[in-house]
Amino acid sequence: MRMKKIMALFLTAAMAAGVLSGCGGGNSQTTDNTSADGTSSVETTSAVKNGKDGRTTIRFAWWGGQERADLTNEAVKLFMEKNPDIEVETSFYPWDSYWENLSVASTANNIPDVYQGYIGSGDFQQFMDGGIVEPLDSYAESGLIDLSSISENLIAEGQVDGKLYGLPFGVNTRAMLVAPDIYEKAGLTIPENGYESWEALEADLPKLKEATGKYAAADFLMMEGDVFKYYCRQQGESVYAPEGDSLINFSKDTFNNFYGMKLKWAGEGLIPPYDVSQAENGPEDSSIVKGETAVNIIPASQYANFANAANKELRMIL
C-alpha cells in the first residue's frame, strides 16, 4: 500500500497538530519556552503576582499516562529553574476523561491556564466557541512568543480562520506494527518497505490468523479518521474538499470499497469484533501485545510503549 509515501503526505498535508493553548482571560503575558526534550510550551500568566512569595502561579494540564507525566514534569521543573519567578502547577488525566474534566472546569471558570488539545477537534472547538481560548497572534507580533524556529507549515496547523490559537509541540504519523514471531510461524516474509497494496496485506491475513489461533490483525480500520484519509489519498482523493460547495471529496466507490473491506475482514474473523477492540485500554492491553494479532497501525511515537509491553520483538514498517 506504499505506506512510506502515505506517511510523508500525512506529515506534510494531513497532520493533526497536538497543541498547548493559552486560556483566554484578562490581562496576560505569554512566553514561549523550549524544554530539554524539544517540546514547546506556551505559558500564559496573570499580570498580577498571585502565587507563593510573590511568584506567578500558572496551571498546566495534559492527557496521558504516568510515564508521560514524569517526562513532562521534568520539563516543567527545568522551566521553573530557568524562570524562578513562576510556579507551575501540573495535572494530567487519561484521554477518556480529559475533556470531561476540562469541560467541568470551564463551567466553573476554573480551567487551567495552559492545556493540551487538538486544533480542529470538536472538544477544542467548543472552547473556541465559548471564547475561552486566547488567540496568540498579538503575543507573536510583540515578540513575547518567538516563532522563528517553527516552520510556517507547523504554525499553520495551529491557526483557525486566520488566527493562531495554539503552537504544535510535536508531530506524529501512523506506522504499521508487525510481530515477526507470528510471521515466521505463518511462513510469511515481512515486507520491510511496507505492503504494496491493501490486497497484498489481505492475502497474508488468513495465514496470520491461523498462526495466532485468534485473529490476523487489529481492527485499525476502526480508526477511520486516520486510515480512511490514507485510503482516500491512494485513490487520488481526500476526505474533505479544499474549497467549493462539496463538503466531501471522495467517491462512493472509495467509501464502499474501504468499508466493504472492513466488513469482509470482520466477517471472516480476520479482525476482532468491535466490542473486543473497544475494550482495549493502552498498549499493554492491545491484541498485538497479547499475541492475538500480528498486524496493527499505531502512532509511530507509541512504538517503544508497545515493544516494552510485548516483551518480544515488534517491528515498524512503512
UniProtKB/TrEMBL annotation:
A Pfam cross-reference name: SBP_bac_1
Superkingdom of source: Bacteria
Gene3D superfamilies in the cross-refs: Periplasmic binding protein-like II
PROSITE patterns reported in the protein's UniProt record: PROKAR_LIPOPROTEIN
Protein name: ABC transporter, solute-binding protein
Signal peptide: 1-21
Keywords: Signal
